[in-house]
Design goal:
Rossmann fold; 3 domains; six-stranded parallel beta sheet; elongated; DNA-binding transcription factor activity; HTH_LacI; LacI family transcriptional regulator; Peripla_BP_I
Length: about 325
């Protein structure tokens, strides 16, 4: 008990006597100090006293699939900063293969009595994945926001980049450069944002035989693009920047040059894409606006406002760099 008092007091910057007053429900402590002490208990992993467990911690879970893709740390920075401005502390939860799952994190966050959860790039975007932990959050009425295209039956507010517009921009850019054999590298077949991009790709009259599905990784992009290169594509639209980098590697290993022989477009505009060789043409997600909107929707739910389970669509931006060029005359 003494160690807990000392650690919490140091974390908050108050005396052990003040912490003791909060834990024992005594008067004489400001609301701000009381909230800071309770939050420190949660952050340090201590259980709240029984009489205080009915109060929600000012903690918000931020659940991400990985940190290797630069877009997710960037999103975490935006959301964490926006939450801090609203007086909340974000708890970062990252899935690991063979380790802690999304469902495990949800259980842990519920135990910590978090005020809400923001998911980005989660299993909610895969139609064939297990969704029981989302249903549990819905049953508990815990404020929750999903980022980027959930399956239809999950009834939460959503913030998404407009995948249809993103695919339309990418295809239009390649066609303006004279490309006709345009391929597409997407995520898994049950991945909702990939499905949306594919629908637009096909409705634009592109060849369905020039579509490859893979896992979101550099290696996945390389393997998928290698198959497209063998089919003679001159331009490739990718569902992430990592897939695009894998596509560039596949083209080079086939003895081709980017963009002289094959043009490549990514998606996200994650960090350092202007420093690759060549700098990557990509479709930028407006993660600053999306992250702030996700936090606003979450805080509105926490404040008991009525928030419809709608999807806010944000417009992407085509960022043209050096990985796209006019189709080679010999391949027209």
């Amino acid at each position: 008990m003494t160690r807990r008092l000392a650690e919490v007091a140091k974390k908050v910057g108050v005396s052990e006597a003040t912490v003791s007053r909060v834990l024992n429900g005594k008067p004489g402590v400001s609301d701000a100090t009381r909230e800071a002490v309770l939050t420190a208990l949660d952050v340090l992993g201590y259980e709240r006293p029984t009489q205080l467990r009915g109060d929600r911690a000012r903690l918000v879970g931020l659940v991400l699939p990985e940190l290797q893709n630069p877009i997710f740390p960037a999103f975490a920075e935006v959301v964490g900063g926006a939450l801090a401005q609203q007086g909340f502390t974000s708890v970062l939860c990252t899935r690991t293969v063979g380790g802690v799952s999304e469902a495990d994190y949800v259980d842990l966050l519920l135990q910590q009595q978090v005020s809400g959860v923001v998911f980005a790039g989660g299993l909610y975007a895969q139609a064939d994945a297990a969704h029981g932990h989302y249903e549990l959050l819905h049953e508990r009425r815990l404020p929750t926001v999903l980022v980027n295209a959930a399956v239809a039956r999950l009834d939460f507010p959503q913030v998404s980049c407009d995948d249809a517009v993103a695919a339309e921009m990418a295809v239009a850019h390649l066609r303006a450069l004279g490309h006709e054999r345009i391929g597409m590298v997407l995520g898994p077949k049950d991945h909702m944002p990939s499905r949306r991009k594919l629908e637009t790709f096909l409705s634009a009259g592109c060849d369905p035989e020039l579509v490859e599905h893979t896992m979101f990784s550099l290696e996945g992009g390389h393997a998928a693009a290698a198959r497209l290169v063998r089919r003679g594509v001159t331009g490739v639209v990718c569902a992430s920047d990592l897939l695009a980098l894998g596509t560039i590697r596949a083209a080079r290993r086939a003895g081709l040059s980017v963009p002289a022989d094959v043009s490549v477009i990514g998606f996200d505009d994650s960090a350092l894409m202007n420093c690759t060789e060549p700098p990557l043409t990509t479709v930028r997600q407006p993660i600053d606006a999306m992250g702030r909107a996700a936090v606003d929707l979450l805080v509105a739910q926490i404040d008991k406002a009525v928030v419809p389970a709608d999807e806010l669509l944000f417009e992407p931006e085509l960022v043209v760099r050096a990985s796209t060029a006019r189709v080679p005359a010999a391949r027209r």
